[in-house]
From TrEMBL:
It comes from the Bacteria. It catalyses: N(6)-dimethylallyladenosine(37) in tRNA + (sulfur carrier)-SH + AH2 + 2 S-adenosyl-L-methionine = 2-methylsulfanyl-N(6)-dimethylallyladenosine(37) in tRNA + (sulfur carrier)-H + 5'-deoxyadenosine + L-methionine + A + S-adenosyl-L-homocysteine + 2 H(+). It holds the Pfam family UPF0004. [4Fe-4S] cluster 1 binds at residues 10, 46, 80. Residues 374-437 form the TRAM domain. Signal peptide: none annotated. It comes from Tepidanaerobacter syntrophicus. Residues 141-371 form the Radical SAM core domain. This is tRNA-2-methylthio-N(6)-dimethylallyladenosine synthase. It is found in: Cytoplasm. One of its GO terms (cellular component) is cytosol. Belongs to the methylthiotransferase family. MiaB subfamily.
Length: 437
């Protein structure tokens, strides 16, 4: 039996798909090359914005063709989309050729669900999650160099635009001993980089019986032999403590990069977003980070067109982007999400205005990213070499400690090692260079 997984959305989903693959392979499934030779397709979905959902529906429609040609072809859907009741209802009524809807918390039951749906001809739903978080599931790592390790699940922040707390549930922290054991095993298996995952890693530990916080976790992971680099995503500005800044500064394995979503440069909009910080507080945090870690790279997420965003609010965002000089930014058009408070707000912004604001924001950020990348030309950077470059088979590819993508000329033996790379050229999305050791 062969399987194929399509993954949408954030790193959390990318990691969840590694678990889905691990569970299926343990049950004897093998990965397939093409859809034609596939028995089970799993869609691991995202609903953060409307276009994420649109992509999934497009894929489901394509799969109908395969189902018609092969009745044993199984379509299973998991991820954030199916945690929304209106989506479940829609799929059940309008897309009956879908076989299974399952909560990722039930991933260990997937092989059984596949068996079951072959016996009964209706959608098999396993959507109510186990309350227990599954530990010790098999994980099929997509890389042998860097690994994703979830430290919290869910989110308690209820930013007014965001669907995540509704679909991922309340924030739960994994036990520190489970995380540390997993990282130790990964180090023994040869992984060099650990990426700690959570919707808000800074609030790690809040629900644990024995106090244990995120800076402490970083310090403990920093001691694990074999790990060369530690990264984490995502940090919420409201929970970024002085202790965390100090831990980042003092732990030599923690990379000089933070992804710190600001969302807006207008304190008025930040309040309506329920973000619990002001523009001034954000700037102060960035200054603390830059003082403690002089070459730190700072990246962010920004939403344009949140309900009620005036031209003046938007100019505040542009001004903040100029002030901070982010290394790069993911920029999004606000998308109404069913069930969130912002979807009910008056003053929804016109699509044309949203698009025009996005364009202006992207132009500004691109020019900053380009200039910052250009400053690195002539320097030598430590790159963790991940493999051959996707765009140019003649080159290798990897990232600097500051998380910048570098495509460079060097011997293949460098793959899986740290290399010193001299930067010779810069673009908006990557740096070009040559190995010097
Ligand atoms: N937990 C993380 C990431 C959440 S999703 C955090 O708090 O930063 C990633 C990004 O998607 C968010 O940072 C936000 O910029 C964007 N996003 C979330 N909901 C959105 C919506 N309804 N419309 C547009 N962008 C959205
Ligand atoms: Fe969504 Fe806010 Fe939670 Fe991030 S912190 S997942 S933006 S609710
Ligand atoms: Fe999308 Fe769910 Fe991640 S909505 S962004 S896959 S948490």
């Amino acid at each position: 039996m062969k399987y194929k997984i399509f993954t949408y959305g954030c790193q959390m989903n990318i990691h969840d798909s590694e678990v889905i693959a691990g569970v299926l392979e343990k049950a004897g499934y093998e990965p397939s090359e093409t859809l034609k030779d596939t028995d089970v397709v799993v869609l691991n979905t995202c609903c953060i914005r409307e276009n994420a959902e649109r992509k999934v529906y497009g894929r489901i429609a394509q799969l109908k063709y395969f189902k018609q040609r092969n009745p044993n072809f199984t379509i299973a859907i998991s991820g954030c989309m199916v945690q929304q009741p209106h989506v479940v209802e829609y799929i059940s009524k309008k897309l009956p050729y879908v076989d299974i809807l399952f909560s990722i918390k039930n991933v260990n039951k997937l092989p059984e669900l596949i068996e079951e749906c072959r016996r009964i001809d209706s959608i098999t739903a396993a959507l109510a999650g186990n309350s227990d978080l599954a530990e010790n599931l098999e994980v099929k790592h997509t890389s042998s160099i860097k690994a994703w390790v979830p430290i919290t699940y869910g989110c308690n922040n209820y930013c007014t635009y965001c669907v995540v707390p509704y679909v991922r549930g309340r924030e739960v922290s994994r036990l520190p001993e489970d995380i540390l054991r997993e990282v130790k095993t990964l180090a023994d298996e040869g992984f060099m980089e650990i990426n700690l995952l959570g919707q808000n890693v800074n609030s790690y530990g809040k629900n644990l019986d024995k106090p244990f916080d995120f800076p402490e976790l970083l310090r403990k992971i920093n001691e694990i032999e074999g790990i060369e680099r530690i990264r984490f995503i995502t940090s919420h500005p409201k929970d970024l403590s002085d202790e965390l800044v100090l831990a980042m500064k003092e732990c030599e394995k923690v990379c000089e990069h933070i992804h710190l979503p600001v969302q807006s440069g207008s304190s008025r909009i930040l309040k309506k977003m329920n973000r619990h910080y002001s523009r001034e507080h954000y700037i102060e945090l960035v200054n603390k980070l830059k003082d403690a870690i002089p070459n730190i790279s700072i990246t962010t997420d920004i939403i344009v067109g949140f309900p009620g965003e005036t031209e003046e609010d938007f100019l505040d965002t542009l001004d903040l982007v100029k002030t901070i000089e982010f290394d790069s930014a993911f920029t999004f058009i606000y998308s109404k999400r069913i069930g969130t408070p912002a979807a009910q707000m008056e003053d929804q912004i016109d699509d044309e205005i949203k698009k025009e604001r996005l364009k202006r924001l992207m132009e500004l950020q691109d020019s900053i990213t380009k200039r910052k990348n250009n400053e690195l030309v002539g320097t030598v950077q430590e790159v963790l070499v991940e493999g051959e470059s996707k765009n140019d088979a003649q080159k290798l590819s990897g990232r600097t400690r500051t998380n910048k993508l570098v495509n460079f000329v060097g011997p293949k033996e460098l793959i899986g090692h740290l290399a010193d790379v001299k930067i010779t050229e810069s673009h908006t999305w990557c740096l070009i260079g040559e190995a010097v050791n």
